[in-house]
TrEMBL record:
Protein name per the record: CBS domain-containing protein
Annotated Gene3D superfamilies: CBS-domain
Domain CBS stretches: 74-130
Keyword Chloroplast: no
Coiled-coil boundaries: none
Keyword tags: CBS domain
Transmembrane segments: none
Organism: Streptomyces caeni
Xref: PANTHER family: CBS DOMAIN-CONTAINING PROTEIN (PTHR43080:SF2), CBS DOMAIN-CONTAINING PROTEIN CBSX3, MITOCHONDRIAL (PTHR43080)
UniProt xrefs under InterPro entries: CBS_dom, CBS_dom_sf, Diverse_CBS-Domain
Highest classification ranks of the organism: Bacteria, Bacillati, Actinomycetota, Actinomycetes, Kitasatosporales
Length: 146
C-alpha cells in the first residue's frame, strides 16, 4: 500500500453546487460511474453526498428528487484529509468518525476521495473487498445469487 493518501485516493472529483437538485446531482454520478459527489462552493468542500445520504434523507421520506437540494441531504462539514497525510491517518480518521470515505483536499480544493474500497485495493489487490470495489456496477462479479 502507498504511504500517503494521494496514493490510495481515487483522483478527480465530481462536485456539484449545493443548490442543485438531487436529480441534477445524480447525472454526473451516473456519467462518471461514481458513488460519491462532493457539494462545493467556490472550490471548497461543503459536504459529501453518498447513496446512503440520498436513501436515508430523501427517498425514505418520500422526497421528490427534482425538488430536494443536494445540500439538504449531504453530510455537511465532512472530515477531510490532505494528499500528503499518511494512509494510517486516513484510516484513523475513518474509524474515529465512522465514515467510509474521506475527501482529499489540497490547498482548500478537492483533489480526490479515499474510500474503504480504495484502501482495500491498495493494501491487497486480491482481497475480497478489493474485488468488490473493482467490480462493475450491477453485480457482474460472477458471484452466486442467494
Amino acid at each position: 500500500m502507498g504511504d500517503f493518501a494521494r496514493e490510495a485516493m481515487a483522483p478527480g472529483v465530481v462536485a456539484v453546487p449545493p443548490d442543485v437538485s438531487l436529480a441534477e446531482a445524480a447525472q454526473p454520478r451516473r456519467a462518471q460511474d461514481v458513488g460519491d459527489v462532493l457539494g462545493g462552493d467556490g472550490g471548497r468542500v461543503l459536504g459529501v453526498i453518498t447513496d446512503r445520504d440520498v436513501t436515508l434523507r430523501a427517498v425514505a421520506d418520500g422526497a421528490a428528487p427534482l425538488t430536494v437540494s443536494a445540500q439538504a441531504v449531504c453530510t455537511r462539514a465532512p472530515v477531510v484529509v490532505g494528499p500528503d497525510a499518511p494512509v494510517a491517518t486516513a484510516v484513523s480518521l475513518m474509524r474515529g468518525h465512522a465514515v467510509r470515505r474521506l475527501p482529499v483536499v489540497e490547498r482548500g480544493r478537492p483533489a480526490g476521495v479515499v474510500g474503504l474500497g480504495h484502501l482495500a485495493v491498495a493494501k491487497d489487490p486480491t482481497s475480497v473487498p478489493a474485488g468488490i470495489s473493482r467490480a462493475a456496477p450491477g453485480g457482474t462479479t460472477g458471484g452466486t445469487r442467494v
